[in-house]
Prior knowledge:
Elements: E1 12-13, E2 22-24, H1 31-43, E3 48-51, H2 57-68, E4 72-75, E5 81-85, E6 92-95, H3 100-110, E7 117-120, H4 131-139, E8 143-145, E9 151-154, E10 162-166, H5 173-181, E11 189-193, H6 201-213, E12 218-223, E13 226-232, E14 241-243, H7 248-261, E15 264-267, H8 281-287, E16 291-295, E17 298-302, E18 311-313, H9 321-329, E19 335-338, H10 350-360, E20 364-368, E21 371-375, E22 382-384, H11 390-402, E23 406-408, H12 421-434, E24 443-444
Parallel strand pairs: 2-15, 2-24, 3-14, 6-7, 10-11, 18-19, 22-23
Antiparallel strand pairs: 1-23, 3-5, 4-5, 7-9, 8-9, 11-13, 12-13, 15-17, 16-17, 19-21, 20-21
Shikimate-3-phosphate (S3P) binds next to helix 3 and helix 5.
Domain Enolpyruvate transferase: 17-423
Binding site for phosphoenolpyruvate: 31, 100, 128, 173, 350, 391, 416
Subunit structure: Monomer.
Amino acid sequence: xxxxxxxxxxxxxxxxxxxxxxxxxxxxxxxxxxxxxxxxxxxxxxxxxxxxxxxxxxxxxxxxxxxxxxxxxxxxxxxxxxxxxxxxxxxxxxxxxxxxxxxxxxxxxxxxxxxxxxxxxxxxxxxxxxxxxxxxxxxxxxxxxxxxxxxxxxxxxxxxxxxxxxxxxxxxxxxxxxxxxxxxxxxxxxxxxxxxxxxxxxxxxxxxxxxxxxxxxxxxxxxxxxxxxxxxxxxxxxxxxxxxxxxxxxxxxxxxxxxxxxxxxxxxxxxxxxxxxxxxxxxxxxxxxxxxxxxxxxxxxxxxxxxxxxxxxxxxxxxxxxxxxxxxxxxxxxxxxxxxxxxxxxxxxxxxxxxxxxxxxxxxxxxxxxxxxxxxxxxxxxxxxxxxxxxxxxxxxxxxxxxxxxxxxxxxxxxxxxxxxxxxxxxxxxxxxxxxxxxxxxxxxx
Length: 446
Ligand SMILES: O=C(O)C1=C[C@@H](OP(=O)(O)O)[C@@H](O)[C@H](O)C1
Ligand SMILES: C=C(OP(=O)(O)O)C(=O)O
């Protein structure tokens, strides 16, 4: 179990929206960027700062892991501005909680330590796929005991590195994890993928872009039009002052609130260009009939009169599947979500969890080999289990806007990436009510 209090639970009745939601909702920093910036800063050739960092269970677990391994991390003017001073990497015990980014990004860095590093995490994390990463490390000359949490990296101060072939079809994080620390391996690394297509490629693009920004040379080779081999040359990781973008995946439940209530929600500081997978919500909501615009004010979604279902491949953006399933379950026409078999290894088996919880509300959501079929069906209130999955909890909240009596068993689990989600949600609704739907800038949660 996590030692950081992340396992305490709290029940919450999701509030309904008596009128169209009208709000401006600022979301905190990206989990994926924060945890990459922290790892790169810990490996860098000097002190870095990370501005706009997300503070949440997953990022605090990363901070704790890197501190235990010898990195100095202090808060500067605020909790979201972190000063990172690299130090010699030493032996430690690491709690991964349920964070994929901690369990996949930290072991390769820990392999550079001068002593053993032990990893464990939540009970539920012990079933998340991990062997591919650990086999990859073995292929690079590291001794590792175990194939899943708990496991031990027998570090000896250096990693030979070289070429390794893995099947990364289970998670892009296996590739990202090996690449992030590879510049510090003696021979760098070449990761070859051999297997069905790698999911979540934008997340690997983010890894490559951030490595290059830190002065690391990365080369990519393609097979059949898809990247299949990544090479990181050995060399210094330069210290960078990282500025973290808002978390676009965490923005999606708030944008969905506009879509399902025929309202209008703006998320400020939406980047014009980004490697974040969450940016795909723009095309998805447009396909469902919403009006989606990016302006200097941010990204604004205006809900349609009629929310339409869609047929979409979410292979690259599996993180969005719970939000998209909630939207689709409230749409007037059927939907098919494809390309997301790997969601069975996320925080929970998300395909099973979504099908089960919608069935309990009278919904018609069925699992396929690689996704979900969602048919319109009248929904009623009832229990909604979160399965320790932040995005299951936020999906329940979206449904609750239109369906009274959605009893989420654990809203505290949103602290994995968005502590205070329920307060933000309630503020969004309260301010919409204050303006009675007449003013588009009703709520500001900034
Ligand atoms: O590298 C990252 O920051 C992430 C990669 C993706 O993982 P998968 O490739 O396992 O889907 C994504 O779903 C996860 O939330 C974050
Ligand atoms: C899959 C997710 O998280 P993790 O980084 O733990 O894999 C997610 O946030 O949707």
